[in-house]
């Protein structure tokens, strides 16, 4: 059994905006609180065995600190980064034009900066049909995450299978070790939402899925991966289990984690 926790990064420094591929830093104090929580948990039976992170610093800063202080291996998956929102990526909402303001200021504003709410609202209402200027389409985002999730799962299953086999042979045990492999994935709200939709076989093209499922900063979504039974055969190479053979269960969605620190004080 493999247990994967998908945790969303903390809030970031900057005005409200669509921060997709824009590399904006996390709020230091909140990052420190989340790190403290993770380190405290690491001393319990719920300790992690590995960390996987998005390459963006709002995720990677926490991942690297936790890796160093928790003595855990870290791997950065480039394709775990958030959806790229093109010209709107990182643009503060306060700087967007309304239709009337665009008309009035047309002579004062460069053509490339004429980003207004109607474009963004259209995307929010039909994210699968409308592609923002110079942005990644929702379809491409879905395919990227689908491939990345499969790669991540197959990698972790292979590691877990090899480790259990090595430990079992070393102890000359008749049974496989009972300990589950626990992995922490630090990523983004859109990434987590897309992974959950893939596992639950829900319609990721619907605007309601992206609008109504709130993935809070610092929240955890938990997934259990079950492997098919394999009879242990000593002296034989470990066979790689195919992705389609695995059973994936979503046990927790967006459970508050960061907020629990405040409650404990």
TrEMBL record:
The lineage of its organism: Bacteria, Pseudomonadati, Pseudomonadota, Gammaproteobacteria, Alteromonadales. SMART domains: PGAM. It comes from the Bacteria. It holds the Pfam family His_Phos_1. SUPFAM superfamilies: Phosphoglycerate mutase-like. This is Phosphoglycerate mutase. GO terms for cellular component: cytoplasm. One of its GO terms (molecular function) is phosphatase activity.
């Amino acid at each position: 059994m493999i247990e994967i926790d998908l945790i969303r990064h903390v809030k970031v420094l900057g005005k409200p905006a669509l921060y997709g591929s824009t590399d904006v830093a996390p709020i230091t104090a909140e990052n420190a609180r989340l790190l403290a929580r993770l380190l405290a948990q690491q001393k319990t039976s719920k300790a992690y065995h590995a960390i996987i992170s998005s390459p963006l610093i709002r995720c990677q800063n926490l991942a690297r600190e936790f890796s160093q202080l928790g003595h855990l291996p870290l791997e950065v998956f480039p394709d775990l980064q958030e959806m790229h929102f093109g010209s709107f990526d990182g643009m503060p909402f306060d700087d967007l034009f309304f239709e009337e303001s665009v008309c009035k200021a047309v002579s004062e504003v460069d053509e490339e900066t004429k980003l207004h709410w109607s474009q963004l609202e259209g995307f929010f209402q039909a994210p699968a049909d409308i592609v923002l200027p110079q942005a990644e389409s929702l379809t491409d985002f879905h395919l990227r995450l689908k491939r990345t999730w499969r790669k991540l799962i197959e990698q972790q299953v292979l590691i877990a299978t090899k480790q259990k086999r090595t430990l079992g042979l070393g102890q000359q045990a008749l049974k496989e070790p009972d300990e589950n492999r626990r992995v922490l994935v630090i990523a983004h709200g859109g990434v987590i939402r897309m992974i959950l939709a893939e596992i639950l076989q829900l319609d990721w093209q619907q605007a309601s899925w992206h609008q109504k499922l709130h993935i809070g900063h610092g929240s955890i979504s938990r997934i259990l991966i079950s492997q098919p039974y394999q009879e242990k055969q000593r002296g034989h190479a470990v066979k790689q289990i195919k992705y389609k053979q695995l059973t994936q269960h979503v046990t927790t969605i967006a459970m508050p984690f960061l907020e629990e620190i405040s409650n404990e004080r």
